[in-house]
Amino acid sequence: MIRPTQVPMREQDPKARVHNFEEVPFGYTPEEAVSEAERCLQCKRAPCIQGCPVNINIPKFIREIREGNFRAAIRTIKETNNLPAICGRVCPQETQCQAVCTLGKKYEPVAIGRLERFVADWEYEHGVELPEVGKPTGFRVAVVGSGPAGLTCAADLRRFGHAVTIFEALHEPGGVLMYGIPEFRLPKKIVRAEIENLLRMGVELRCNVVVGRTVTIDELFAQGYHAVFVGSGAGLPKFLGIPGENLIGIYSANEFLTRVNLMRAYLFPEYDTPIKIGKVVAVVGGGNVAMDAARTALRLGAERVVVLYRRTEAEMPARREEIHHAKEEGVEFEFLVNPVRFLDSSGRVSGVECIRMELGDPDESGRRRPIPIPGSNFVIPVDMVIVAIGNDPHPLVPRTTPGLATTKHGTVVADEDGRTSREGVFAGGDIVTGAATVISAMGAGKRAARAIHQYLLTKYGHAPVQGA
Amino acid sequence: MHLIRKKRVLGPNLVELEVEAPLIAAKAQPGQFVIIRLHEKGERIPLTLADWDKDRGTITLVAQMVGKTTHQLGLEYDEGDVIADVVGPLGNPSEIKFYGTVVCVGGGVGIAPIFPIARALKGAGNTVIGIVGARTKDLLFWLDRMEKVCHELHVTTDDGSFGQKGVVTEPLREILRTRKVEHIWAIGPAIMMKFATLTAQEFAVPITVSLNTIMVDGTGMCGGCRAEVQGESKFACVDGPEFDGTKVNWDLLLARLSTYKEEEKCALERYLAQVAEAARR
Ligand SMILES: Cc1cc2nc3c(=O)[nH]c(=O)nc-3n(C[C@H](O)[C@H](O)[C@H](O)COP(=O)(O)OP(=O)(O)OC[C@H]3O[C@@H](n4cnc5c(N)ncnc54)[C@H](O)[C@@H]3O)c2cc1C
Ligand code: FES
Question: What is the ipTM of this complex?
Fold first, then answer.
């Protein structure tokens, strides 16, 4: 008999966890993992493999878990996924591998993400096997940005034997994994361990280098790099463009989360970076970023946090698990509303005026378009607002790299394998797709590493370049 | 890690530092800034580049000790110490070209960043009139350096302890009344830049100001540095820091600068108490 429901994952009690930043789910024990693995039908068709953006051989690693061979399971995953401990925690499995799980037609799908997390955590405890570094080729590759795209590309380039330098604008590597996604969802020690592994593989990391300012891509080529990978992400926060949005107390989610995660403002004044927390906080948006901001605000002591989203819960792009967690923790939701202006009380925000929306016909994204209902305006008194309506691509690299083609949205034009309009320049992750997911950025980094390797061999021949 | 090669006290609560940062020194242009973080627990603060030396691989920063970080920099960081992070050069450079006659106004610690701009403008063939001002004589610095890069230099102090008694807008108005000026740069406290802008507007002379907003990353990622310019939100770190002064919403800028007033006060008091405690022991 197959268990119809997933083996539940134990979690911190919502009442306790709103007062701390520790991770919410505890992860499976080996027994729980094996028992969840036993639910897998091992079906021949294995639609989950296609559902995974990097095509992990899911039935194989689940079978290995079932056999208690956790080492084999992690090896299987790592054939195509460099960052399983991270993906197991933050991937939207319910729209990817688990959405197409055969078991899911009748019962709950296999908890693939939880199993992935389990074996990745098991590996941390029992010793991480570093991928083998290839024989030195003499080629040098520069990687711009240390988010999931850059980290993955760098690791794979090392496997091919190329010398790799990552240039990162901030003082700490990791990109969104470090400054955006909060500790209670992705412990920073995991991100740091991944970066540590990269360094052990011989990747050189240079923080505090803003490519386009400190050094340009053309200058990198002049310094002897043979190829460049751009993984600079979608870091430019969008604002609503409505009256009052520069009042004190209105933050972009990026600023709010960066102050808290990267700068540790929650430990002010022990740490020097301050943050202001309101009593009543409105969070505008419906994605993971909005959920992270709302839950962080609660943990910092806000009395009430209200998420304002212009469509309904069904259209929310956030991971289901995070919406569920947010609700459990007491985050409130106002659906079908849109802010139209912020109210000013001597320079500080004192309220947000909203208009109610209804859903009309589907738009290009296939989601039903929200339409304002005239005359339905109402005011929510708040003393802090966090705007989480998305990020635009970072313009600095395109702006300072002649010949690098961009779309009208400002994303870098690149093919499946990351080739851009500039020879030797490759790109992947959010800078190409616009704000997307960790796994798609990682996949892009992997494909680009392969394409860069091909490019170097084709252009310079197989012989290593001497003295490069 | 960035070594402090030289440190000099310029006046009460005013220090000049020469810091090793070869990559930044090689690329620096007038009008640009850096962001520094002193140590692991430090905040990221922007400081406008006051000077740089490609050959020595160093940059020069002038800091006024106002908050905790700048006090710590002034009191605890000496020659031979290291600053954990220095990133830059950030922001768009000043538009240096031939204008004709230009006025460069530096107020308070703003004297430091106006210096390289004046120097470059002179290099581009302009007639450069400098105006520098401070509350009192002890807070004036780099008069010798400014004299070298300006064709004429006006100096004011609020209390009349040196130069002309009054504020920088007074000589500015006098100059604009009697001479043909093509462009003005003004850098200093927001309130000074606001009044310099009003003065420039009276005479319809274009004015560029450098906005000293609160920043975190300095790369366009957080939007904390945003200012309203001609009714639109602009990010000072990537769209600026220099803007047309007449387009800036000064009241909003001044309000936003006071966002963390209480926190800054609390952090500074706590820090100074720690310093006093350490001195007692
Ligand atoms: C709060 C938040 C929560 C999220 N939650 C999820 C989730 O649950 N699941 C999920 O799959 N996805 C999530 N995402 C999206 C996911 O994090 C991104 O899609 C992913 O990180 C993109 O990776 P990347 O490598 O392309 O870019 P990034 O992670 O953005 O990294 C880019 C890096 O490049 C650096 N950089 C930028 N410009 C330069 C330059 N000029 N020079 C040098 N360095 C530069 C940046 O500082 C940054 O470190 C979330 C995003 C946010 C903001
Ligand atoms: S300082 Fe963060 S965007 Fe300007």
Answer: 0.93
